[in-house]
Write a structure and sequence with these properties.
three-stranded antiparallel sheet, 8 helices, about 45% helix, about 15% strand
Length: about 300
């Protein structure tokens, strides 16, 4: 139970490095729930598949003598006539190490078709957006802090600085304070500190939301800007088709791998797109809202 909040160190929101690490975890988490697996053996959890496939772009599934059907990250080598790899090599403390022949005693699950050429998964995508979001949030936090001080006190010596600080503390506490002209006024002046445009903070907040929405659309999640009050049906439909192409590619690669796993290891597993990420199920709802707006024109 948390009792002493005063002992907590304030979280440094303006730290880009700390924000970057935060957003990597947050964006990665949003990717992990995209697909739903059924009838997988207990030794092959869906979360373990997706963690590896989403981050690295691929993972190997094979039957281990001790742990049963399992998934592991590793390396790819060898080439066939299409320059696709022929061998999967893994090394793991509990599983040991081994070279397996792809499509013989091992199946590779790819995140997308492009990952078959050069596997990246969502790792690079997540890192790019995490950096942009961290930069924007750092700027937002700095703007908020600077908004507290529109003027910066400038003094001639340490004694005057102490007197000014005492005066500021008294005002902050709601107390009156009498200034000695000889000790403060002649040695004290103010300079503009927060010179940002009045709507800068609002623009930064909008930029944060826009970047986050762009990331979600990259992984196939439909997002509509609330400020776009009137949209034509063709525009919405075109956006949906583009998103469905992205998710269809991801789903196609997983289905292909699961079918190979079923045939190779005698199971009856399946994979589908999580309904929360399935744009096609929400098209009619979106279009009905758009058509209602069209009727108002």
């Amino acid at each position: 139970m948390i009792k002493e909040y005063d002992n907590f160190k304030l979280y440094d929101v303006k730290s880009v490095k700390r924000g970057y690490n935060y957003f990597i975890k947050m964006l990665y988490e949003k990717c992990l729930g995209m697909f739903t697996y059924k009838n997988l053996p207990e030794s092959l959890p869906a979360t373990e598949i997706e963690k590896r496939v989403m981050w690295d772009g691929f993972a190997g599934v094979f039957n281990h003598s001790k742990y049963g059907l399992t998934v592991c990250d590793g390396g790819l080598s060898g080439i066939n006539q299409y320059y696709n790899p022929t061998t999967f090599i893994y090394s793991q403390p509990m599983l040991g190490s081994k070279e397996l022949k792809i499509n013989d005693n091992c199946v590779i699950i790819y995140n997308s078709q492009s990952d078959m050429i050069e596997p990246y998964g969502f790792k690079t995508l997540i890192k790019r957006y995490a950096r942009m979001l961290a930069d924007v949030e750092s700027s937002i936090d700095i703007m908020i802090i600077n908004s507290r001080a529109t003027k910066l006190n400038s003094v001639a010596d340490a004694l005057t600085a102490k007197s000014v600080n005492n005066a500021m503390q008294a005002i902050e506490s709601g107390e009156s304070y009498t200034v000695n002209q000889n000790s403060i006024i002649d040695k004290w002046s103010t300079k503009d500190w927060n010179t940002a445009h009045p709507d800068t903070l609002e623009k930064l907040i909008d930029a944060r939301q826009c970047i986050l929405n762009s990331f979600l659309e990259e992984i196939g999640v439909k997002s509509i800007n609330e400020k776009r009050e009137r949209m034509i049906t063709n525009e919405v439909t075109a956006d949906n088709q583009l998103l469905m192409v992205n998710t269809d590619d991801l789903l196609y690669m997983r289905k292909d791998a699961i079918n190979k796993i079923n045939d190779m290891f005698g199971i009856n597993a399946s994979v589908e797109l999580n309904e929360h990420y399935d744009v096609s199920k929400n098209v009619s709802i979106i279009e009905s809202g758009v058509n209602a707006n069209d009727n108002d024109l």
